[in-house]
């Protein structure tokens, strides 16, 4: 949400919105980091599952 603030300019005072776009950009960056972390965790979990299946299959084939 934007924050409104009075700023002094040559003509006098003017009301300006500050922070709105910056907050959205920060939120977008946070969401990207969260998505990247979730994808990494899912990838590691999948690799772990594949690894455990491969070990199990190898153990079965050796018997």
Structure, explained:
The chain has 63 residues and is an alpha+beta fold. It has one domain (3-62). It is built from 1 helix and 2 strands; from the N terminus they run E-E-H. It has one helix at residues 20-62, and strands spanning 3-9, 12-18. A two-stranded antiparallel sheet has the order 1-2. The N and C termini lie far apart (64 Å). The model has no long low-confidence stretch (mean pLDDT 81).
Q: What would the keywords be for this entry?
A:
63 residues; alpha+beta; 22% strand
Q: How much strand?
A: 15-25%
- How many DSSP helices? 1
Radius of gyration: 26 Å
Secondary structure class reads alpha+beta
Rough outline? rod-shaped
Number of domains: 1
Distance between the termini: 64 Å
Percent helix, as a range, is 55-70%
Tell me how many strands there are.
Answer: 2
What is the average per-residue confidence, as pLDDT, rounded to a whole number? 81
Order of helices and strands: EEH
Q: How is the main sheet built?
A: 2 strands, antiparallel
Strand order of the largest sheet: 1-2
Task: Return residue spans where pLDDT drops below 50 for at least 5 consecutive residues.
Answer: none
Summarize the structure.
Helix content is 68%, strand content 22%.
């Amino acid at each position: 949400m934007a924050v409104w603030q009075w700023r002094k300019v040559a003509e006098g005072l003017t009301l300006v919105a500050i922070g709105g776009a910056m907050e959205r950009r920060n939120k977008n960056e946070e969401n990207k980091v969260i998505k990247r972390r979730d994808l990494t965790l899912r990838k590691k979990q999948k690799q772990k599952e594949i690894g455990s299946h491969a070990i199990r299959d190898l153990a079965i084939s050796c018997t």
